[in-house]
Write a structure and sequence with these properties.
The chain is α+β, with helices and mostly antiparallel strands. The chain contains 16 helices and 4 strands. It folds into 3 domains: about 10-105, no CATH class; about 110-215, no CATH class; about 250-395, NADH Oxidase. The longest helix is centred in the N-terminal third of the chain and has 30 residues, at about 65-95.
């Protein structure tokens, strides 16, 4: 058989000209990051629905020119798939080829890149004109807290960032009337800065700020308690034992069958409060839970992700966990929206379980068509990214849950290099 050699330039031109509609195989392809090797279109260039139709046709009834054209199409697709697979292998070994792959062959990362840039611009805007909780202030105050609790505590610390923290605090005070930030956040910042300026010794960078801080008009405190580092009361054991937590974790299972009983909003908000206590990098909490309990909206949202077919119709409430990249000044922290939001989601889920509310975590795959639909339905800003969905409601007593065997501890952890 004669080997067909195809110039890369012609291949790329041919690839750009192909538009193949997404078919029912999209779910299968989405599970494999390289299933769509050349995804200028949602489907890519391997086994498309059109190609399967070509194979199933009775070739004896097809005119020779059309058979020739279809055969050529298959050979081009095979050759292109081979070239793109080569690029993927090179990209796995080289950062330069990786950049080339995602710059010219795949659009999979484009939305995340755009969101990161939009978040960076939003971060800069909110630092000078805050309208809500300010990530720059929260990060800076938390850094000062860590300096205050260090052992031994240094006489002078925070020189690299105290000017930025103080400037942001002043901006928040200036915009306090037009800003939706909580009084607790400003009180926390005020208390930490007060202690910082009290314990640090004289220094040319700190002294002018210390004097200016004392001359400011600070917000009234919401409570007499100071919002500064403190010693926890460890004289009594935790109110929840390990065995109780183990039982709770084993009781919680993904519930897909719910009763029609409505879920009170105060039950949900109490669970959100528990999720809000989860750890977060520099206390920025870069997420928001968009909760829908209107039946029509629930159905619209529930039909967007994969995996809800067959039970979406009986979901009474659904939450969409949204990450906000506006909380970061650099792309290095872009993954924190997924980490911090997931930590909060687990606390949210356990809190619902203690109140008799069942939940089901729903995966959100990064598929452009569905990203656009979610963006339009929820009116998301460019830096906001859906992370996961959570269906919730009172469980149907007759509904079953999956056994879902969990991996043993030995497979989930390793000590040192054992």
């Amino acid at each position: 058989m004669t080997e067909v050699i195809i110039p890369v330039q012609l291949t790329m031109r041919w690839h750009r000209s192909i538009v193949i509609k997404q078919s029912s195989n999209a779910t299968k392809q989405a599970e494999d990051p390289f299933a769509v090797m050349a995804d200028r279109s949602p489907r890519g260039c391997e086994s498309s629905g059109m190609e399967s139709r070509i194979e199933s046709d009775d070739t004896s009834t097809i005119p020779f020119p059309k058979r020739l054209f279809r055969g050529t199409q298959r050979r081009w697709r095979k050759a292109l798939s081979h070239i793109v697979a080569k690029f993927a292998k090179w990209g796995a070994r080289s950062s330069w080829f990786s950049w080339m792959y995602f710059a010219f062959w795949s659009r999979r990362m484009h939305r995340e890149q755009r969101a990161m840039l939009a978040g960076w611009l939003k971060f800069q805007e909110e630092a000078t004109n805050p309208v809500a909780s300010c990530a720059q202030l929260r990060r800076g105050i938390h850094r000062l807290e860590k300096g205050l609790l260090m052992r031994p505590r240094r006489d002078v610390f925070g020189l690299d960032y105290i000017q930025d923290v103080f400037s942001t605090y002043k901006q928040m005070l200036m915009h306090a009337e037009n800003c939706s930030t909580t009084s607790d956040e400003l009180s926390w910042a005020n208390d930490v800065l007060t202690e910082y300026f009290e314990v640090t010794t004289d220094h040319p960078k700190i002294d002018p700020l210390r004097q200016e801080f004392r001359n400011l008009t600070h917000p009234p405190t919401a409570s007499a308690a100071l919002h500064t580092p403190y010693k926890r009361d460890l004289s009594t054991p935790p109110p929840l034992s390990y065995d109780q937590l183990l039982i709770l974790s084993q009781r919680r299972r993904s519930v897909r069958w719910f009763s029609p009983e409505s879920v009170p909003r105060d039950v949900i908000t109490k669970a959100v409060a528990i999720g809000g206590q989860s750890p977060s990098a520099c206390n920025r909490q870069p997420f928001v839970l968009r909760i829908f309990d209107d039946p029509d909206l629930v159905q619209q949202v529930a039909k967007l992700p994969f995996g809800t077919a067959g039970y979406a119709h009986n979901i009474p409430v659904i939450a969409v966990v949204i990450g906000q990249l506006r909380n970061y000044f650099d792309a290095r922290d872009r993954h924190l929206i997924y980490i911090d939001a997931s930590l909060a989601a687990m606390g949210f889920i356990y809190a619902l379980e203690t109140q008799g509310i069942g939940t089901c975590c729903i995966n959100w795959p990064d598929i452009e068509e569905r990203e656009r639909k979610m963006e339009q339905l929820l009116k998301l800003e460019p830096d906001e990214r859906p992370i996961m969905l959570i269906a919730l409601g009172y469980p149907d007593p007759e509904g079953m849950v999956a056994y879902s065997q969990k991996k043993p501890v030995e497979q989930l952890c390793r000590f040192n290099f054992e």
